[in-house]
Specification:
Number of strands: 4
Shape: globular
Number of helices: 1
Distance between the termini: 29 Å
Helix content: 10-25%
Largest sheet: 4 strands, antiparallel
Order of helices and strands: EEEEH
Strand content: 25-35%
Strand order of the largest sheet: 1-2-3-4
Radius of gyration: 13 Å
Length: 71
């Protein structure tokens, strides 16, 4: 599988509305990156982001809301 580098240096990150307020479970997503949805841990921004295909994002969020992924 080919790997491609996605430059996220100018990404506009926002905290998920589903993150809790005590700082324990917090994720951020970046808007405006064509074709993908980058996701990162708010508490550890130095780690690489998880890159989700844009077409897979909505089904992933729906599965989380339904509890299908153990969330």
């Amino acid at each position: 599988m080919a790997s491609r580098h996605i430059d996220l240096s100018a990404a506009c990150w926002r905290k998920s509305s589903y993150s809790n307020t005590d700082g324990g479970v917090c994720v951020e997503v970046a808007d405006g990156v064509p074709g993908v949805v980058p996701v990162r841990d708010t508490k550890d921004r130095g780690r690489p982001a998880v890159i989700v295909a844009a077409g897979a994002w909505a089904p992933f969020v729906q599965a989380l809301k339904a509890g299908a992924l153990g969330g």
